[in-house]
Amino acid sequence: MEAKSKEMKDYKCFLKTTTVEQIAFYRWPVNKLQVKMAKLPAKKVPDRNDGKRPYIREVVECVGLHDSFKTAEGKKLDTLTVR
Questions:
Q1: Separation CA 18–CA 27 (nearest Å)
Q2: Residue 19: enclosing H or E segment and its boundaries?
Q3: N or C: which end of the chain has fewer CB within 10 A?
Q4: Positive/negative CA dihedral, 6, 7, 9, 13
Q5: How far is CA 76 from each of CA 26, 69, 70, rounded to the nearest angstrom?
Q6: 74 CB neighbour count, 10 Å cutoff
Q7: Which InterPro entries does the UniProt entry name for this protein (predicted)?
Q8: pLDDT digit of tens for each residue in the chain (83 aa)?
């Protein structure tokens, strides 16, 4: 049980922000996924190297880095997102 609490995993999240819909990347403990997702709204998105960091309005879904989104919007945006 102790090993699972320290296990980290890379996630991608489909977000609705104050400006656009986008995908952001995170690395979280596996057992804290729901808590981390719940804390995202009202925070700024991670830096995209363009200086623009809008606020997150809604987390549509988060999945493992190599998994597929369930929503059609998420899948489409994922194909356009640079890693």
A1: 23
A2: none
A3: N
A4: negative
A5: 19, 9, 11
A6: 20
A7: TapY2-like
A8: 455 568 999 999 999 999 999 999 999 999 999 999 999 999 999 876 667 789 999 999 999 999 999 999 999 999 998 87
